[in-house]
């Protein structure tokens, strides 16, 4: 019986050898005892093993969770350092972007003011140029008429005029006017001097065509005024006296008319040119400012892109840290909430492992109880198992629970309550 806990089949073989040795037939009740004992021991040990496995899985899970808590705590500490670094970087970028954006806004405002000034200056220059062009347009017909008169002059007609020994007085006056205007003659306005001026008609014609109508001395204009005021000093009257004199008369009238208009327009042109130069200067300055704003704006846009990436990275790190914190909190609650259970489970595992050993004797006593003494009185049963069987198991060093009650092994409290 001492080897029951190692091999139940060996006990069965021992009984069979005893039967052959003493040459008698083993009682059926004893064989049923052996069969029931094996069944009961296997059943009870199976349940105990299931309980041990279940509790050990729970203990292993608790151990793993505790290790994870430590790992999560260490990881969270590292992650919080990363959060601090990313926050510092983001805050620094926010400050830089704010400062650069403010500078960009100031530059943009200054550029807007300068642009308004430039537009105003440009519009003013255009207006002054338009006014000057409008005034000058009045002089163009006079200049064209003078040019037409010059174009109509021919060397032959000039030769004919020169050849006149005693030309009409009106022709002499026209020649005088030409001497004043073209030659700048102040005193000698006699006809011979005029003939001398016409010695080379082709050269004279070329000089008249190249005459600078824009710049005529004032004394010449004053000297010509009495002649221009004469009623006969015009192309129509002079045509009847001399073709060349008529065209020269028309040339003088239109040249003087053009010059008077031009001198009135010239200050307008100069003012328009100055305004245009100022507008162009402002446009050049504006281009520099606009380029400066573009560079600053481009820089700010780049910083904003960096800030967006930094904020996204910071959010990712913060979210990861929060997720780790949530896991850590959950694990801490689990470990904290099951701390007492962990101790109890550990104690239960120790107790169940002990019961798996003591079940060898407990199942044997319980099987013998069912096979032999169940029908007897409680006093007889108690005396037999507690007074005889349990001491015998102890003497044979068969493990069993001290003071074991077979009913506890055979039925649960629920089963007994049903009874």
Task: Describe this structure as you would to a colleague.
This protein is mainly alpha-helical. The chain has one domain (1-337): Up-down Bundle (Histone Acetyltransferase, Chain A). The chain has helices at residues 8-22, 28-152, 155-163, 169-183, 191-197, 201-209, 218-228, 235-239, 243-337, 339-373, 378-395, 406-410, 413-418. The two termini are 33 Å apart.
> What average pLDDT do the residues reach?
79
Low-confidence stretches: 1-8, 21-25
The span between the termini is 33 Å
Estimated share of beta-strand residues: under 5%
Q: Tell me the number of structural domains.
A: 1
Number of strands: 0
**Alpha plus pi helix count:** 13
Gyration radius (Cα, Å) is 67 Å
Sheet having the most strands: none
Helical percent range? over 70%
CATH fold title? Histone Acetyltransferase, Chain A
Helix and strand element order: HHHHHHHHHHHHH
Q: How does the overall form come out from the CA principal axes?
A: rod-shaped
SS-based class: mainly alpha
CATH architecture, by name, is Up-down Bundle
CATH class equals Mainly Alpha
Give the topology, please:
Blueprint: H1 8-22, H2 28-152, H3 155-163, H4 169-183, H5 191-197, H6 201-209, H7 218-228, H8 235-239, H9 243-337, H10 339-373, H11 378-395, H12 406-410, H13 413-418
């Amino acid at each position: 019986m001492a080897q029951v806990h190692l091999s139940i089949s060996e006990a069965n073989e021992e009984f069979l050898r005893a039967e052959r040795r003493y040459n008698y037939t083993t009682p059926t009740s004893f064989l049923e005892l052996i069969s029931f004992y094996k069944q009961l021991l296997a059943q009870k040990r199976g349940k105990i093993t299931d309980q041990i496995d279940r509790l050990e899985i729970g203990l292993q899970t608790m151990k793993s969770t505790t290790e994870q808590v430590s790992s999560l705590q260490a990881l969270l500490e590292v992650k919080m350092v990363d959060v601090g670094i990313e926050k510092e970087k983001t805050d620094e970028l926010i400050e830089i972007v704010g400062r650069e954006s403010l500078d960009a806004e100031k530059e943009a405002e200054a550029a807007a003011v300068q642009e308004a000034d430039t537009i105003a200056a440009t519009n003013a220059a255009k207006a002054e140029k338009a006014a000057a062009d409008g005034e000058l347009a009045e002089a163009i017909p006079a200049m064209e008429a003078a040019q037409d008169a010059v174009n109509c002059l021919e060397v032959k007609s000039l030769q004919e005029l020169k050849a006149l020994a005693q030309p009409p007085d009106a022709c002499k006056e026209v020649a005088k006017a030409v001497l004043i205007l073209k030659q700048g003659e102040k005193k000698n306005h006699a006809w011979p001097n005029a003939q001398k001026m016409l010695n080379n008609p082709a050269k004279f014609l070329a000089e008249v065509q190249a005459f600078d109508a824009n710049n005529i001395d004032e004394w010449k204009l004053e000297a010509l005024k009495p002649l221009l005021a004469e009623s006969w000093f015009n192309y129509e009257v002079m045509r009847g006296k001399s073709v060349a004199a008529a065209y020269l008369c028309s040339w003088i009238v239109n040249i003087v008319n053009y010059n008077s208009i031009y001198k009135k327009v010239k200050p307008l042109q100069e003012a328009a040119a100055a305004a245009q130069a100022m507008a162009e200067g402002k446009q050049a300055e504006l281009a520099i400012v606009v380029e400066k704003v573009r560079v600053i704006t481009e820089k700010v846009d780049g910083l904003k892109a960096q800030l967006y990436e930094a904020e996204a990275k910071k959010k990712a790190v913060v979210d990861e840290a929060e997720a780790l914190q949530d896991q850590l909190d959950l694990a801490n609650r689990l470990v904290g909430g099951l701390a007492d259970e962990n101790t109890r489970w550990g104690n239960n595992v120790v107790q169940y492992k002990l019961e798996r050993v003591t079940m060898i004797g407990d199942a044997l006593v319980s099987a013998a109880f069912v096979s032999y003494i169940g029908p007897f009185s409680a006093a007889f049963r108690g005396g037999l198992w507690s007074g005889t069987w349990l001491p015998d198991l102890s003497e044979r060093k068969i493990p069993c629970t001290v003071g074991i009650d077979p009913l506890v092994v055979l039925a649960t409290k629920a089963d007994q309550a049903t009874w």
